Q: What sequence folds into this?
């Protein structure tokens, strides 16, 4: 049965259908390339939106994918607000950890390429005037992330990214100021906890209409 995909890629925003029997995350983790049917792609450079077609998408180019159904994860979880910058996007949301989680003592590492967030908000870094769109959940490609701001040292989820740790009350949504380059890089070799998913009750995502429409207009 086809599943819906809404993917924020390095070059634009892609929507369509993928023939896969399970969750979108499984599809992304199982292959290096997905064939998207009835696809619509909006380039971020202002080129016109292409007609619906069947197109391949390289999984490594996907920055954020919006699942079409609730993804399972820890039930009794502590939530950590965070902001990440990946490719052309600034993404805010919450990441789950088990209660009492200590990043300095965790033994297991996160598995897979994608980290699941809840209460996701997305905007264009270079065009914040385009506004932001929200989704109940989002799968972030942790290898595309350049910068992380969180209330806990979560660098092991995002190897190579610059990390800024702030108290939870100061980690706000999209539109936060990008930190200076002096911020220390995350430790790619630091240990991490297993089970990086989240559990929510939402089963659908809001369309990225406002962001897509703005992205389709050339920059002045």
A:
């Amino acid at each position: 049965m086809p599943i819906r995909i809404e993917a924020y890629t390095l070059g634009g925003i892609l929507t369509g259908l993928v023939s896969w029997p399970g969750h979108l995350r499984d599809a992304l983790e199982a292959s290096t390339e997905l064939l998207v049917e009835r696809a619509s792609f909006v380039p971020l450079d202002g080129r016109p939106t292409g007609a619906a077609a069947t197109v391949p998408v390289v999984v490594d180019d996907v920055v954020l994918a919006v699942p079409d159904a609730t993804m399972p994860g820890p039930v009794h979880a502590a939530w950590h607000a965070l902001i990440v910058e990946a490719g052309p996007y600034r993404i805010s949301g919450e990441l789950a950890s088990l209660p009492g989680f200590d990043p300095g003592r965790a033994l297991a590492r996160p598995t897979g390429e994608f980290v699941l967030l809840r209460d996701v908000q997305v905007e264009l870094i270079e065009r914040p005037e385009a506004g932001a769109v929200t989704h109940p959940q989002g799968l972030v490609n942790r290898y595309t992330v350049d910068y992380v701001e969180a209330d806990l040292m979560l660098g092991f989820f995002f190897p190579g990214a610059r990390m800024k740790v702030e108290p939870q009350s100061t980690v706000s949504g999209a539109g936060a100021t990008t930190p200076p380059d002096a911020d220390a890089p995350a430790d790619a070799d630091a240990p991490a906890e297993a089970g990086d998913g989240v559990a929510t009750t939402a089963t659908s995502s809001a369309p990225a209409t406002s962001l897509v429409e703005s992205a389709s207009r050339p920059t002045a």
About this structure: The domain at 2-67+203-215 is CATH 2.30.30.100 (SH3 type barrels.). The longest helix spans residues 24-30. The CA atoms of residues 119 and 125 lie 19 Å apart.
